[in-house]
Each structure stands twice: as C-alpha cells, then as structure tokens.
Amino acid sequence: MTALTLTTSGAATLRADVIVVGVAKGAAGPVVAPGAEAVDKGFGGKLATVLETLGATGAEGEVTKVPAPAGFKSPVVLAVGLGRQPEKGEAYGTESLRRAAGVAARSLSGTKKAGVALPVEAAEDVAAIGEGLLLGAYAFTVYRGGEKRTGTAAAADTAVKQPLGEAVLLGAKPRDKAHKAAAERASALTEEINRARDLINTPSNDLTPEGFAAIAAAAGKEHGVKVEVLDEKALAKGGYGGLIGVGQGSANPPRLVRLSYTARGAKQSLAFVGKGITYDSGGISLKPAGHNETMKCDMSGAAAVFAAVVTAARLGLKVNVTGWLALAENMPSGSATRPGDVLRMYSGKTVEVLNTDAEGRLVLADAITRAAEEKPDAIVDVATLTGAMMLALGNRTFGVMANDDAFRTAVYEIADEAGEAAWPMPLPADLRKGLDSPIADLANMGERMGGGLVAGIFLREFVPEGITWAHLDIAGPAFNEGAPFGYTPKGGTGSAVRTLVALAEHAAAGDLG
C-alpha cells in the first residue's frame, strides 16, 4: 500500500523522485494550477509555456514530464491535466482532483517517492487527492513473478513495476486536525477498497464461498467486527432456499456471512447486503463463450459490503452497521437447480426458477429477508445484477432503485458527493405482473425490456413493510474491462464502497433522514 504523508515543506526543498503539479485547460492554453507556484517560479513563471511547447493542453488525464528547475531537490516535474479551468471565484472540484491524483499515481509506478503539489484549499481537497493517489497506485500482482518461472517468462516478471512507494502531499497541514483526519480517512477507506479490488481480481479457483468467509472472519477479528458464518448445513436447516438452490450445483457449497459493527451510543442502524457469486457460469442456463471469462467478478457486491463494514469500524463511526455476504458458486451439474424448479425461500415465498442465470436475485432475497428481521433503519443491497443496467447506463454508472423516493434521492446524492457515478431508476408498477408464475408465488424472470428494473421489483418482494430499502445495480462499473482511467484500474474497481461508507457517515451524523 502506498504511504500517504502530509508536509509543509516546499516543492523546491523536498527530496523526492518527482514533483507533481496540476495544469488546467484555459481559454488561451494551459494554465498552472494553484499549489505549483514554487515550481512555476523555478521556471521563471514560464512553466505553462514550457508545457504547451511540449504539447500539453491541461486536458483531463494528460501527463507531461519535464526536468525540474535548477536548485530543486527533485529531478523531475510531472504535470497532470485537471481539465477545464474553473471560473473566477470557483475552486477545482474534488472529483477533478481525485482523478488527476489517480492519473499521476498510475504514471509513477516504479517510483519510490513523489511530492504532490495539487490545489489544496480545504480538508475535502486533502481527502480527494489522498483517495486518488492511493486508489490510482493500486496494482494486482499476486500472480506475477512466481519462483518456478524461468527463462523469458522470469525475465519479463522482473519488469513488473511496483506501485508508487510514498506520496507526500504538499500544501496540506500535518498539524491541522481536519487535514490529518482527512488523510487518515483516505488511507483507511482506500486500503479497504483495494482489498475489495484484490478479492474481485482473485480467480475463482482461489476464492470460493468458504474462502471468502474465512477472509471476512480474519478481517473481522483484526478490526473489531463480529463475524458469523452459516455453512451449507445451517443454511439448509434454516430454510435458505435461494442460497441453497443457487449453490447446490457446485462442489464449493454456499455461505451466508454476517458482519456486525456496533458503536456505543449509536442511534441508527444500517444493513448492507452484497451479492457474492464467486463464479457465475449461469448454471444449467449456461452462459455462452465470451460472457463467462470475467465472471469471477460476480461477487463485487459482497466485496463492497465487506469493505464498507470494515471501513466503518476502522473509522469508528457512531452508527451500527451489519453486512450480509450472500456467497455461492453458480455451476451446472447433476445436482444443480434446473429451469422450472421451484425454490422455497427463507421468507417462505416460493419462486419458480425460469432461468438459472438470474441467480443473484435469489441469494439476495434470502439475505435481505434475514437482514430485515433485525429491523434496521434501512437496507441497501449491492449487486452486479443485470446486463440490462449496463445497457441502460453504460460501464461507469450504477443504478439506484428504492421503495422510498426520498431515500433513493438521498442515496443518489450521497453517491455523487462521494465521487461515484450513479443514477436514480424507477420501479414501474406495470412490470410486476411479468413476474407472476402459474405454480409459485413469483418467477425469477419477468419482461425482457426493463430487465434491470424487473430485478429490482423482484427484490422488493422480499422487503417487509415498514423497512426502507435501496438497491444498487453495479453491473457496469464493478469490473473495468477497458484501459485504466483516472484512479480506476483495469479489473475490479471497488464500486459502491465509497457510497456505502458515506451513507454510514451520514447516518452517524443523523442527517440520513
């Protein structure tokens, strides 16, 4: 994990491998951003001109390196694009700072120490830059450079660069309580997001439901989170028909993990529920080639919930948070659930399984019902649930549905505040009829059009009256199959963790509603 430190040292005197500055896209060319005054002075006030000569424009994601001015203790200056220059009197947005810091960190892999002189006006800027640096520096290298590799493969492994070692934030105040707290929060939050990314990126042969549960138990012990695990026998005895039905086709049986963080004096309680399909083949309704290669990521919702609960504990938030990880492998076999089978869920409702590849809603339904028994103030489930949501919102935005319009708006606004792209989605009443079954209480499939909304409507059937509930479909942003961007790596992203943690913070402050 990259170390994040604050300093009052100047850019000229800091001993580092590189100094990072911001450059914005102005009306007449690149403009040096606040925080880089000392560096600009070292260039005789001509840093923007030098950068423009090298082709820099200040566009978001742009990186330009130049030798540092004479007399600087660091040999290189790296200018990172911040995008459009704010209007007079406006400050740089926290998300712009977060993304720029992430770009800088990604470009500095293999570097031991960087001084970062991006604009810092408030503690929120410290938090955003810190998050961007620590998330951008992430690298998943567990399976690189094994001891038994020889020849060309081994030589290639030596070229794998390690993440940025230390980021020193210039302009921040290490003795300022707000700045120090912002940096500490950023470190704890991003460490757990990166742990979630590791879990998502881990191949399914190394991350089974049992293995995931063991990791959760170990983390709980370390951070004061109580962990309870129901194995396949306990699930069968308890009547968790959804979890058993999805997991019964696999040699790796399902688990339901309960994570509980209790804060003294807390007045509100939240329950987070995560879909944890450690591999999704589709079951008997088998996915075709081209659609199953990345299905190790189908436990991203559970990873987000796990990370959020541990973060809440590490931050000592004054709110009670329970996390429910609904873990299973969805595999085809002679013992697998068949299309047309009927499952009796933990709630007592029966579900006709028309498509075994609509399995996430089945495990979530059981976990939501169980979470509701503890009567939390709100339940939020997180899942890579539907391809339909990706068609609707693309690869970078998750959908927010709820049984309460005010709560849906609150979740959407908190996600935006946390820097995560989200969009409120409806649960149209007319789509409910498509879930009717001639032999069971409902079917696990409905109308094809609006499939993401249909899935949300199915889950709502398992939320008892009087319980506030929201559903986050993170199918798009949970796993980045394209090139890295901003602070987002290729592979697992840790989508929704920041939103869940921010929800817990708002609940702790008593302003969640």
Secondary-structure topology with pairs:
Elements: E1 3-7, E2 18-26, E3 29-32, H1 37-42, H2 47-53, E4 63-67, E5 76-84, H3 94-107, E6 113-117, H4 123-136, H5 151-157, E7 166-170, H6 177-201, H7 209-223, E8 226-230, H8 232-238, H9 241-247, E9 255-261, E10 269-280, H10 300-315, E11 320-330, E12 342-344, E13 350-352, H11 360-372, E14 378-383, H12 387-393, E15 398-402, H13 405-418, E16 422-424, E17 442-443, H14 451-460, E18 468-473, E19 479-480, E20 491-492, H15 497-509
Parallel strand pairs: 1-7, 2-5, 2-6, 6-7, 10-11, 10-14, 13-17, 14-18, 15-16
Antiparallel strand pairs: 2-3, 4-5, 8-9, 9-11, 12-13, 15-18, 19-20
Which key terms come to mind for this protein?
513 residues, alpha/beta, eight-stranded mixed β-sheet, seven-stranded mixed β-sheet, elongated
Quickly give the structural class. Answer: alpha/beta
Largest sheet: 8 strands, mixed
Q: Helical proportion?
A: 25-40%
Topology, number of strands:
20
By DSSP (H or I, 4+ residues per run), the number of helices equals 15
% residues in beta strands: 15-25%
Rg measurement, Å: 24 Å
Mean of residue pLDDT values: 96
Give the strand line-up of the largest sheet. 8-9-11-10-14-18-15-16
Quaternary structure type: single chain
Which blocks of ≥5 consecutive residues have pLDDT under 50? Answer: 152-157
Cα(first) to Cα(last) distance is 36 Å
